[in-house]
């Protein structure tokens, strides 16, 4: 805590103030604050057009922050932020936008960055995108490198089709849990998969994807599976959608019902 205070004093001193304790609050133009690892390498930095320093926190306007890891750099911008001087947690608000070196980007009205937990999270509406893939949801938590992401509810995911321009859409009540290292996305509760061939309903669906090739390998739907295609409705306990072939394999005593249209 003493080191943090000393460092904040140094920042304020070089910004034109010579006494950190004279006033209850102080304004700083062109605010710049850095945090370092134990080996001396830079961990993160925050810049702002203006900052107001209070006893326990710092309010920053027009924020631009960067988080550095061994294999990634994450850039964060927002209209304003509040930095907790005790634990260095940051609350960002107003057009929050995050992008990493791989091109994964996120936008949301507000966001909390928990330094000790290495986590970002929000209860607001959030949109994330990479290449042609886009996910919308309400509420999200993730590690700062976006390797594991948990979307809380009201999930809508859009993926490019393999052979056609029409996207594959997956919705669920939530949560949606994505592990980018494993290449899996688990959709839970009231899952609906939609493509040009029809709709597939289930209790749970696990999507396997190839990040490098940017394609869906397969989708495994489980629990009360129902597939609707034209006049046909099929029920089963499990269905596997093969992304490359764009075909569905049914398991668990499937039943097919045909409902012809009245003429």
What this model shows, in words?
This protein starts with a helix and ends in a 5-residue tail after the last strand. Mean pLDDT is 85; it is low at 1-22. It is built from one helix and 17 strands. The chain is mainly β and 263 residues long. It has one helix at 2-14, and strands spanning 26-36, 42-53, 57-68, 73-84, 90-99, 105-114, 119-130, 133-143, 148-159, 168-172, 176-179, 184-195, 198-210, 215-229, 232-242, 247-251, 255-258.
Which helices and strands appear, and what pairs or packs with what?
Blueprint: H1 2-14, E1 26-36, E2 42-53, E3 57-68, E4 73-84, E5 90-99, E6 105-114, E7 119-130, E8 133-143, E9 148-159, E10 168-172, E11 176-179, E12 184-195, E13 198-210, E14 215-229, E15 232-242, E16 247-251, E17 255-258
């Amino acid at each position: 805590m003493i080191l943090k205070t000393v460092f904040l004093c140094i920042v304020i001193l070089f910004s034109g103030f010579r006494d950190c304790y004279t006033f209850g609050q102080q304004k700083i133009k062109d605010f710049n604050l850095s945090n370092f690892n134990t080996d001396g390498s830079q961990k993160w930095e925050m810049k702002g057009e203006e900052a107001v320093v209070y006893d326990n926190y710092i309010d920053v306007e027009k924020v631009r922050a960067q988080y550095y890891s061994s294999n990634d750099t994450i850039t964060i911008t927002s209209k304003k932020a509040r930095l907790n001087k005790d634990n260095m947690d940051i609350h960002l608000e107003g057009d929050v936008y995050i992008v990493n070196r791989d091109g994964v980007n996120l936008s949301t009205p507000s966001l909390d960055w928990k330094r000790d937990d290495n986590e970002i999270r929000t209860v607001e509406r959030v949109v994330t995108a990479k290449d042609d893939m886009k996910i919308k949801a309400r509420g999200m938590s993730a590690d700062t490198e976006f390797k594991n992401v948990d979307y809380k509810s009201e999930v809508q995911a859009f993926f490019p089709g393999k052979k056609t321009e029409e996207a594959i859409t997956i919705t669920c009540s939530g949560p949606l849990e994505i592990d980018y290292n494993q290449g899996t996305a688990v959709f839970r509760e009231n899952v609906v998969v939609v493509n040009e061939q029809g709709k597939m309903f289930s209790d749970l669906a696990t999507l396997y994807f190839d990040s490098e090739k940017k394609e869906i390998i397969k989708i495994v739907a489980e629990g009360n599976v129902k597939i609707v295609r034209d006049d046909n409705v099929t029920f089963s306990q499990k269905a596997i959608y093969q992304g490359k072939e764009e075909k569905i394999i049914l398991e668990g005593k499937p039943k097919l019902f045909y409902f012809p249209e009245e003429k």
